């Protein structure tokens, strides 16, 4: 999955819990990359820059706080940003800082959920950024055990914050579907395996062993999305991967991913990803480093 994008060797040593670095710069010049560590990135005064996380691309505003999980593609590009003083604070911490058994404790349930969601990238709300940016910015003034406690406190406060937004599509990174409902998970497994075929509401309702109308309400309540939106998200995730990893034409990819109308594919892609498939592909291939 990640063989065509630069793998970053971070400065985080095995003996440290985390590393933090802060800088003020005129532009973003680090290429699309991934690494083994979690990364929390606070960006100030970079309106008009472009963020890429997994299969998601978006132009950002003045303030930005994103948590990216291990081995997830990510980068920020200058794009239309005119600022001469972009502030960026990056915190990287090891995958095993939170042991699986530790995360299963009741008091860590919100952190566990956030850590799992970070495999798709998480964008935090402006209200959350306003509440925590000074603490993040000042973290490098602490040292030793106090710095670790403060990081854990910041991560906990992030995990219970409101209106966080998951960025990338789950099917882009082959993420497992977890909805605390075996019926929903069976339906998503089916859609993820048959996304290239025609799939009807009647089919998936039968898999869930529910009437169509009841299933429509059920999937909306459990996932926050309609059946069609859920199916399109899965198809767009696979289409995004194909745009990066293959030389197939946009039309070929659309049909391979279950869209039987290229205009409909382009329209849905732009609505969900804020760019057309051609521009999405160029964002990736124009910044890839082969190693």
Number of helices: 11
Strand order of the largest sheet: 2-9-4-7-10-11
**N to C succession of SSEs:** EEEEEEEEEHHEHHEHHHHHHH
Q: Pick out the low-confidence regions.
A: none
| Secondary structure tally: strands | 11
The geometry reads as globular
Q: What oligomeric state best describes the polypeptide chains here?
A: single chain
Bin the helical content. 40-55%
Query: What is the residue-averaged pLDDT?
Result: 88
End-to-end separation: 14 Å
Strand content: 15-25%
Determine the structural class based on helices, strands and strand pairing: alpha+beta
Largest sheet: 6 strands, antiparallel
Q: What's the Cα radius of gyration?
A: 20 Å
Task: Describe the fold and architecture.
The protein has eleven helices and eleven strands. The protein is α+β, with helices and mostly antiparallel strands and 291 residues long. It has a six-stranded antiparallel β-sheet, with helices on one face. Helix 2 packs across helix 4 and helix 3 packs antiparallel against helix 4. The chain is globular, with a radius of gyration of 20 Å. It starts with 5 loop residues before the first strand and ends in a 6-residue tail after the last helix. The model has no long low-confidence stretch (mean pLDDT 88).
């Amino acid at each position: 999955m990640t063989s065509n994008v630069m793998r970053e060797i971070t400065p985080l040593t095995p003996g440290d819990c985390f590393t933090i670095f802060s800088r003020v710069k005129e532009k973003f010049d680090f290429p699309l990359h991934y690494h083994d560590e979690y990364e929390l990135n606070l960006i100030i005064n970079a309106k008009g820059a472009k963020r890429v996380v997994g299969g998601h691309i978006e132009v950002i505003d003045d303030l930005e706080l994103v948590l990216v999980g291990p081995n997830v593609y990510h980068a920020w590009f200058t794009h239309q940003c005119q600022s001469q003083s972009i502030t960026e604070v990056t915190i990287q911490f090891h995958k095993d800082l939170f042991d699986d058994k530790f995360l299963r404790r009741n008091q860590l349930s919100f952190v566990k959920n956030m850590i799992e969601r970070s495999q798709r990238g998480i964008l935090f709300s402006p209200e959350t950024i306003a509440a925590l940016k000074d603490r993040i910015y000042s973290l490098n003034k602490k040292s030793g055990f106090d710095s670790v406690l403060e990081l854990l406190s910041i991560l906990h406060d992030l995990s219970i914050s409101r209106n966080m937004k998951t960025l990338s599509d789950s099917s882009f990174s082959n993420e497992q579907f977890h909805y605390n409902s075996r019926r929903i998970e069976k339906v998503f497994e089916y859609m993820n395996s048959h996304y290239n075929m025609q799939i009807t509401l009647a089919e998936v309702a039968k898999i869930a062993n529910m009437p169509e109308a009841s299933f429509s309400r059920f999937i909306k309540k459990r996932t926050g999305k309609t059946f069609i939106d859920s199916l399109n998200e899965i198809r767009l995730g696979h289409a995004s991967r194909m745009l990066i990893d293959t030389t197939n034409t946009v039309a070929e990819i659309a049909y391979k991913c279950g869209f039987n109308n290229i205009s409909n594919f382009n329209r849905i892609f732009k609505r969900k990803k804020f760019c057309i498939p051609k521009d999405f592909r160029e964002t990736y291939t124009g910044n890839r480093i082969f190693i």
